[in-house]
From TrEMBL:
Pyridoxal 5'-phosphate (PLP)-binding protein, which is involved in PLP homeostasis. The keyword Plastid does not apply. Pfam families: Ala_racemase_N. This is Pyridoxal phosphate homeostasis protein. Keywords: Pyridoxal phosphate. The modification N6-(pyridoxal phosphate)lysine is found at residue 49.
């Protein structure tokens, strides 16, 4: 039986499975926080890419408030489906925060601002311009339609921390995209000065196949430099299933965990 068919025939078993996995991840995070001697726990963003809207609903029922997606088309459809399911069930809006964490083409900005509260993958000036004008238009659209005001879009700069030249990198999550470290402050100034955007901090993916520790240490240094110019920009989005402990040790404020909560994906994107 396919994974989908199993989920259909055993919806409660899937909910229990997600509940156990979520608990195990939360325990890992708590242990890492204690080991690092930190007094605050990072926010858990559950990365739901490749998994169905039904799983997102289950996660929301288990207390998850933040979900992450890396492809606009999939995220857009899933966010709409989650809200439709919530409406059909009479439970009201899900209240979920959608975090966009993938490579983003500027022409998709107008879609992303409709469902995403945050974009973690801002890595170039042209994308700042596109997000700013899309978010401005979205706020105007909502006002004209008599809808509640949307907060400014939370933006994080994705930093490329891989020391290897592009052609020597293995293909995988984060192997493309990201601003060069020496361009981060300029990009930060640009986001901070852009209408309808709110500069929150930095995001990175540890270089595939290398020790994540030096990369996360560099990320923390860059974060300090950005936050000293922009006091509100203190988020550090780092840490995935494989390296959450190292990310917590390096001061991550947001963790993006997929596989260890939802199980394996059919492919990695
Ligand atoms: C998929 C993805 C994650 C989650 O990775 P896991 O190894 O499944 O926990 C985190 N960050 C980004 C940018 C991703 O694309």
């Amino acid at each position: 039986m396919s994974e989908d068919a199993m989920q259909e025939s055993a919806p409660e078993a899937r909910t229990a499975e997600l509940g156990h996995a979520l608990e195990a991840v939360r325990r890992r995070i708590d242990r890492a926080v204690a080991t690092a001697g930190r007094d605050s726990t990072p926010r858990l963003i559950v990365v739901t890419k490749f998994h169905p809207a039904a799983d997102v609903r289950r996660l929301a029922g288990l207390g998850v408030q933040d979900v992450g997606e890396n492809r606009d088309q999939e995220a857009r459809a899933k966010a709409a489906e989650v809200e439709a399911l919530a409406e059909a069930a009479g439970t009201g809006p899900s209240g979920l925060h959608w975090h966009f964490i993938g490579q983003l083409q500027s022409n998709k900005a107008k879609y992303v601002v409709r469902y995403a509260a945050a974009v973690h993958s801002v890595d170039r000036a042209s994308l700042v311009t596109a997000l700013s004008s899309a978010m401005t238009r979205e706020q105007e659209r909502r006002q004209d339609a008599g809808l509640p005001r949307r907060e400014d879009l939370d933006c994080l700069i994705q930093v490329d921390l891989d020391p290897r030249p592009a052609h020597e990198r293995p293909e995988g999550i984060g192997s493309r995209g990201g601003a060069a470290p020496d361009g981060v402050l300029t990009l930060a100034d640009r986001i901070a000065g852009a209408e309808a955007l709110s500069l929150r901090g930095l995001m990175a993916v540890a270089p595939l196949g290398l020790d994540p520790e030096p990369a996360f240490r560099r990320l923390r240094e860059l974060s300090g430099a950005v936050a000293s110019r922009h006091p509100g920009a203190t988020w550090i989005s780092a840490g995935m299933s494989q390296d959450l402990e190292q990310a917590v040790a390096a001061g991550a404020t947001h963790l993006r965990i997929g596989t260890d909560v939802l199980g394996p994906r059919p492919e990695v994107g």
